[in-house]
Amino acid sequence: MDKRRSVILLLLLSILLAGCQEEQQITPKEQPLEEQATPEIRFLEYISHWEQADFTGMYGGYLTEGTKMAFGQETFVAWQQQLHQDLGIENVSISYQKPDTGVGWSKSEPADFPIQITMDTAAGPVEFSRTLTMLFETQEETADWYVEWNPSFIFPQLEEGDLVEIERTDPERGEIHDRNRKPIAVNGKGFEVGIVPANFDEAKKKNDLAALLNITPGEIDEKLNQSWVQPGHYVPLAVLPAKATDALQQIFAIPGTEQKEVPLREYPYGAALSHVSGYIGPITAEQLKQRQGQGYEQEDLIGRQGLESILEDRLRGEQGVRILIQKPHAGSEPIIAAEKPAKQGDIIKLTIDAELQKTVYQAMSGKAGTSAAVDPKTGETLVLFSSPGFNPNDFILGISGSAYRKLQKDPLNPLFNRFAATYAPGTTIQPVTAAIGIKLGTLDPAEGLEINGKTWQRVPSWGNYRVERMYDKVPNPIDLNKALVYSDNIYFARQAMDIGRDALVDGLKQFGFGEEIPFPTPLISSQISNEGTLGSEGQLADTSLGEGQMQVNILHLAAMYEPFFTAGTIYKPTFFLEEEDGQVWKKELIDAENAEIIRTSLRKAVAEGFPEAASLSGVPLAGKSGTAQNRLGENDYFVGYNSDYPLFILALMIENQEKDENSEEAAARAAEVFKAWK
């Protein structure tokens, strides 16, 4: 869409200008003849004022009488100031070839200086050559050299009576694609639907039309009651995507309706990628103020959430700008004084696999929760979502108030981005606790512990605090394999006592706790505790089991299982395909031999232990389930992978499961994904 804002540069007749204003002359002090400046000295003084945009100084002390007669002070100063502002003129630089040494200057002859003018404008750099002429004349008893000026020193084609326009062209917004070039946020088309009140049977058709547009009858009333609306005026109501063919056909059949094709941003994966893509929408007053001078206007669309907002500068591209000189003769073509073509926004390619993400999202069946998947060989992020999502297509031209209130009141809170948040990870953290103990030498995977009973308390001074295990029928001794297979909390609590509070804190920090996750979108950091320390043995035990005050980000949780494939390395989780793969974030967390021991136990945890829901015929899943209590119930987890073809590690959490519900819900949802993706 072209936007034109005319800068009126009409140079009025010199007699009219001279007669309409009083010129305030700034008269240089008369010098004795032998001390008068040479034309070159005066020329250098003039261009110094010029480069500093000191138009008042230029006019008052350096212009010939003829120039002042043709262009009054108000026109010369205010006009050029306005030009600089409207056309974005800055960094003006004047160069010239220095005259030969000893050149003689005749007061009866003009002094000519060939000059090169360069400047930056909103339409890009401008460069041209002119000849600046100086005349020796007397002004108010002061004899000196003065400059002959005309509009061609602004632009070479500019003449008296011309009109200058600045024309802006919006670039095509860049798109967001997945790793396989599947569209996530793309440019499409839609249809603006409106009505002409005089031709529309409001009483009979308003409710039908509102239903087809997914708005309320009250919102139609609000549009029709705007102050500017007249019976014969077209009143826009809403925009529908072009693919809504059934609704558009029914709308077009209603007398008084009209449709106009408009460009429209599209989000083909809808809710499944809503918190990743975000959406564009009408620019707010606050955003307009923040981006003042960047070419945004009140009716523009701008990234409002997600990558659309984070990558706004890259996606928006660069406006095209032309500075046009329009001659006053009828039928004359405008002259392009400067031009900067529009530059399309970048195509952003994500590491996300949109189809895999869609599969995981559908497996969640609308339950509240979050999920992430990483490639253990590269660190690439393949899945990252929050469930439930929302339809970003509804926000592009401004979501209706009723629809937005419905989202806000939804008890599952679809507007909340769960993958950016943190939650207690429960027993899915046990393999990490094991790795820390193995590296410190306090945990021998083959050594079994004698554990009896359902609960355990190290010393009576623990008071009412006891560690409880899920299964107390497992035959002793309990080694690391049995502890992982049966999620034995007492085993890991006892190992934590051997590790010690400070050493466990240090070990968790080596896994990335307490520091910013190196990711291009904001993620809350995983924490060991509120203070980053462990104040008691009870807190030590809880933390080793993923409870207490421990909080983990879902992407970080998936990445913490990478060392069991990489012999101790966690890769930086990448999000853009342009990023280098395999960048080391953490290293030397476990050796290859012990990593294999843990992988074997994680396979047995699914094949022999619990959760049974993840035990699939033909798909050898390995992984760890877990639950963590919260004030509304329990968060249910599963972190797993296909042990034969570990293409990705999937971490999945379902929020606020009631305590009497199936604790294998997350494992069952994950199993659906691996079954579909084998």
Helix and strand topology:
Blueprint (H helix, E strand, L loop, with lengths): L1 E6 L6 H7 L18 H13 L3 H8 L2 H6 L2 H14 L3 E7 L14 E11 L2 E16 L2 E7 L14 E7 L6 E2 L5 E13 L6 H12 L3 H8 L10 E7 L3 H8 L4 E10 L7 H4 L1 E4 L2 H6 L10 E5 H5 L1 H5 L3 E7 L8 E6 L7 E2 L4 H10 L5 E6 L6 E7 L13 H9 L12 E2 L6 H11 L14 E2 L10 E2 L11 H6 L3 H11 L1 H10 L26 H8 L7 E2 H6 L3 H4 L3 E2 L12 E3 L5 H16 L13 E10 L2 E10 L6 E9 L7 H12 L2
Parallel strand pairs: 7-15
Antiparallel strand pairs: 1-6, 2-3, 3-4, 4-5, 6-13, 7-8, 8-9, 8-10, 11-12, 13-14, 16-17, 16-26, 18-21, 19-20, 22-23, 24-25, 25-26
Helix pairs in contact: 2-3, 3-5, 13-23, 15-17, 15-18, 17-19
Pfam family, one: PBP_dimer
InterPro entries: Beta-lactam/transpept, Beta-lactam/transpept-like, MecA_N, NTF2-like_dom_sf, PBP_dimer, PBP_dimer_sf, PCN-bd_Tpept
Family: Belongs to the transpeptidase family.
